[in-house]
Structure prediction request, 455 residues.
Amino acid sequence: MTHETALCILAAGKGTRMRSDLPKVLHAVAGSSMLGHALRAGAACDPARVVVVTGHQSARVAEAAAALAPGATCVEQSPQLGTGHAVTMAEPALSGFEGDVFVLFGDTPLIRPETLLAMRDARKGGAEVVVLGFEAAEPGGYGRLILDGTGALDRIVEAKEATAEELAVTLCNSGVMLVPGPALFRLLSKVTNDNAKGEYYLTDIVGLARAEGLACAAVRCDETETLGVNSRIDLAAAEAAWQARARTAAMAAGVTMTAPETVFLSHDTEIGPDAVIEPHVVFGPGVRVDGGATIRAFSHLEGCTVARGAVIGPYARLRPGADIGEDAKVGNFVEVKAATFGKGAKANHLTYIGDAEIGAGANVGAGTITCNYDGVLKHRTTVGAGAFIGSNTALVAPVAIGEGAMVGAGSTITRDVEPDALALTRAPREDRPAFVAKLRAKLTEIKARRKAGKG
Prediction:
């Protein structure tokens, strides 16, 4: 018996209640599409094959699947005749596959990899069909998992087909299954649509398996993991649940959050132990913060790295390509994009640093900007180690400021500055004594004339 695995992800639904032009499975939770969450959870089982069953806007979903899981096969379900029918569409793509097939859902983004591994363990324990279930606070319209006297799974009953006794059961079906490929498609070939919805239910294979004398098992998970998204309200609930779980995991790993409920993480956020995250911080995709760094309040980070001892914010923005070195400081109302800060470099106030390299120990004054874009091309700015850039300076790229150099406040620098040199660009000052009083009197006279309608 082989325990090689494959994924079959059902992603055909339109999601009418989402009220969106975007396919439902491509809506995001924690900076990733729900389809991406399903693929990442399944990746923990090291699948040999991945099949995504598409339907609504099939080409768009297939394009996303190819980007998320290169090598995945996409098959289209049309018309859509139920979950059993959807899985059947994957049969040609899984032809000859003798291992186990996970059936997952592209609109259920909270399934944990650990849960899928527990299902795989149950399969290794001898169960032919493994179903993921949960104890529901309000079972409502969920299908019920009916166990026999030994605790084995006997059958799944849809709510519309259930008796009053079966409806009293609180162990509910998530829809997620693990079944050997050959058995899965053999059992599906026996499923009929003789039910209240006229659909082919994947759940019917449990009863069919039991009729063949095959062992079936139910693995339990927390109800939160099974949350399916069918509306914007569900999407917000999934985001809240994902964030709560991720914050808890981060704090358990040694991250300090002074107001965790105000911090928003991304699906791939990495934060090291002893990092401090102040209130109202947002992490977009692709962020790594090393232990011992501090992210101060109201900062936004995306596609960047922050080294140990660095301090970001408050009110800072790190855009993709920002690489902040050890003990560096990016202060209030500073924006950094595609730029590196060396160890101990500082830009403490009201500054834009883009397409640049700021050397170790350099100090960039308030109001400084790197003029990196000429309307067509981007250009780089280099500030050497220990250099000092005075306030309200424009560095017109491409330009290099040498090590230890100093740029006077208010300068516009268009040529390279040598190491240890002082660069100043200021217009000569002109004073006109008593000029303001005369000008004010003249302007007041003009205003009075206009008010009187005389010009």
